[in-house]
Amino acid sequence: MINTTVDGDGIAEVVMDNPPVNALPVAGWYGLADALNALGANAAVRVVVLRAEGRGFNAGVDIKELQAATDFGALVEVNRGCAAAFAAVYDCPVPVISAVHGFCLGGGIGLVGNSDIIVASDDATFGLPEVDRGALGAATHLSRLVPQHRMRAMMYTSATATAAELHAYGSVLTVVPRAELRDAALAVAREIAAKDPTVIRAAKASLNGIDPWDVKRSYRYEQGFTFELNLSGVADRVRDEFGRP
Length: 245
Hints:
It comes from Micromonospora sonneratiae. With 245 residues, the chain is an alpha/beta fold.
């Protein structure tokens, strides 16, 4: 589900591979967090590339796992797992480059929004369809990708933004054909890996230290509304209505 490698230059790759759409279950989110934390603790690692195999980068949480649960335990754990994975990207002591193709939805936005650098293929789209699922969350991270009013419109309508739009906003570094995505991400990674690793780790820590956005506290606040919607039964009703033909 989560595969990691580290090459001789200190470039680590973390690859999500959970067909059919890379929607991660509870174990997947925690596994991703563990993988990123382990790489960050490895002094030989200089930069991380986060990417995926399959149809798209990430489709968020595994809704089927939540629907099969008999209580709210899975909901609590998947929210904790998402928070852990998002934090692992943000807190990773070295820069994290997200290489995004296809769809990047829900939890995928949390990962990408907390990344240091984003490279995307020309077929990539980004969005938060949460309101159609009776949930909320990751507006914190979408706010780091698009301007405030665009973010609000995307949240209310479940609209998506293209890689080209995000490139115009400055949040996506470069847009390339899908076949060139991994190479493009690795090219940026190699440039970073060639720098002094102590300086790069200090740069990451300093940039997080001056960040005006407390992403962990902000996301935790959002999660509270998701729990309210589920406890009140509204989330189940919305999901049922959305799934009707």
